[in-house]
Amino acid sequence: LSPDEDGICSGRYFSESGLVGLLEQAAELFSTGGLYETVNEVYKIVIPILEAHRDFRKLTLTHCKLQKAFDSIINKGQKRMFGTYFRVGFYGSKFGDLDEQEFVYKEPAITKLPEISHRLEGFYGQCFGEDAVEVIKDSAPVDKRKLDPNKAYIQITFVEPYFDEYEMKDRVTYFEKNFNLCRFMYTTPFTMDGRPRGELSEQYKRNTILTTMHAFPYIKTRINVIQKEEFILTPIEVAIEDMRKKTQELTAATNQEPPDPKMLQMVLQGSVGATVNQGPLEVAQVFLAEIPADPKLYRHHNKLRLCFKEFIMR
């Protein structure tokens, strides 16, 4: 800042007490918004100023508020409500600049897909006329040539925050897994002959990772997608992923404090029940009955065997 510019340094917030006032307001709002960990970050800036002024009354208040914030973290644990995220793509010349743009929307934590779908359909229906708006129900890539040029199409997909393995080392708490998010993932099952679902041996999966321009939470509740990456998982990789998921569910259910027999019962039924046609037994019969002919599959074959070893141990 250049001090000779008129009015910049004479505003009422441009002083130590003004800064402290604004930061305290920010901490209050973070607390109301349930982001208790950030309250601590904000007060880290405030406390040295209060200490320098020997303002013990305010220091007492600040530490009381910090205690409240830390208590909330301990007491609320996994019950805290963070956002639910959806990818929304707009297709059709009716949208003007929005045509072929994709956004990630942040919604309140218990929003279901039909709710946001109904809301966006209603909103754009008022803009273009109800008959002109259509919601694309699947998450497969959109082929613009097959769309009616007189209609506006909206494609909505549920997405989850995505982290690389190395990131997970730093994102330990529930809060860290729901804060400062700019990468999201959704999966689309497909088979080579065009059907979304098929037998285990022909079930492929497309993982799409989206990167947004800014990180959530943000001032706006929708942010542009600036990058899109796609990974195709082969049937055996899909099976490995499923087995890992099942093992994680079992681990969580057996280590739950206090123990929850109902949850364990459900997970066990889903894992080893004879009625589950695409359960672990089926996976083993399809992929592990014989050693694959293609040497490229040896690694996956071994990985899957290790997954089963872990699974049986659990």
UniProtKB/TrEMBL annotation:
Residues 1-314 form the DOCKER domain. Pfam families: DHR-2_Lobe_A (PF06920), DHR-2_Lobe_B (PF20422), DHR-2_Lobe_C (PF20421). The keyword Phosphoprotein does not apply. GO terms for biological process: positive regulation of establishment of T cell polarity; positive regulation of T cell migration; small GTPase-mediated signal transduction. It comes from the Eukaryota. GO terms for molecular function: guanyl-nucleotide exchange factor activity. Transmembrane segments: none annotated. InterPro entries: DOCK, DOCK_C_lobe_A, DOCK_C_lobe_C, DOCKER_dom, DOCKER_Lobe_A, DOCKER_Lobe_B, DOCKER_Lobe_C. Keywords: Guanine-nucleotide releasing factor. The keyword Transmembrane does not apply. GO terms for cellular component: cell leading edge. Belongs to the DOCK family. This is DOCK8 protein. It comes from Galbula dea. The lineage of its organism: Eukaryota, Metazoa, Chordata, Craniata, Vertebrata. The gene is Dock8.
